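[Solved] Which block belongs to which protein?

Original post:
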Amino acid sequence: MEYKTVLGEIIKIDQEKVGSDALAFLVRCIQMAHDPEVNENDLIEVAYSEENPILKPGIIKGRGFIDQEALDHPLYPIFADLISLKGKNQGTFNSENALKQYSLTVSEASEFLGISPSAIRQAIKAHKLAAIKKDGQHWIIPASVKSYKVGSRHRKRETPALTVCFGTKKGSGALIPKFVNDIEMVTKNDQGLKEGVVMSFLSAAILTNTQGDKRFFRIVPGPDNEMKFNGFFIKGKFKIIEKINNPRGADKAFKTFTPA
């Protein structure tokens, strides 16, 4: 048995492995996803209720509890996708925005987690990492990489992912970074600018400013790279995946950005 996701991924289902009860419940949810009389909230209430055989009873009466065992279950990504399918059928799902979430390559996820590319592909195949395949290459959601448990296989990065020169200086403008973790080992260089390192990141934002002329950059892990700006800089393994040159748009994008 196969299931095709909203974004076109094919998930193969081992019917014997998942069991008849879970399979019957999945069929019920699939029918609800295609039923125009059923809205998105109704489907969510059923799919994540304690009726779902892959979930344990939760603290809230009637609601199931999503633990690691549930997340690892081969049917879990299908239940999650059915919510997107219902949204698509109701006109509330934006496939273009959904695709933008998948911004990491296998090698970049491998670099971040400290495990081999083949281990990343195995995790994708087991649906433990949220990914799609486009033009022969897997693209992964950063949030799923961040939450992925690698246990004893994890190798801590020995060198920083980035070296950053940041802050504000009169006459030079400003470079303001936004990372999920604090910049470490911060010192001042000969020009009086702050320098520090970032050990790891999945998605970050940079705002540059010269007399009100603001620029926004969104960066993710990538190959060796360097970005310089009026004495400020970012060096290390990163790539720019989004750039906004409009000052108002850049300021808004930076304020609303959530790093990972």
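(Second protein starts here: sequence line, then its structure tokens.)
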Amino acid sequence: MKTFAVINPHSGGGRTGRTAKSIAQKLAEVSGPLTVAMTAGPMDAATITRHALRDGFGRVIAVGGDGTINEVVNGFFENGSAINPEAELALLTNGTHVRHRADARGIARADRERAYAADRCRALALRLGGRQAG
């Protein structure tokens, strides 16, 4: 499956940007060939994600904090419809105050970087404006 990583270099107080090359290499070790894009500003992650999905990528990895994750999720949709209903979202939380990290406490970073590839995927139903999407 073609995999795309959206990395917010400003997340984690800039820590993600300083370690982006290493993060991308480790993700490629578990996902195979990986295309990476770094965000440059607000809503960039959503735009990058939309382009990746339209270009045939089947998995998008959000690397960053809550804001990055939110933008990537929004990028899966356009005009209230999923761009690719079969596409997968993977998360590598690396923000300053990541709320999604609560369930990952105590898990080593290397394990988190491999976790999405360990066949632990599940389907989610999302509600957009009161109607179900995907």
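Accepted answer:
You had them paired correctly. Confirming on the second one: The CA atoms of residues 104 and 112 lie 8 Å apart.
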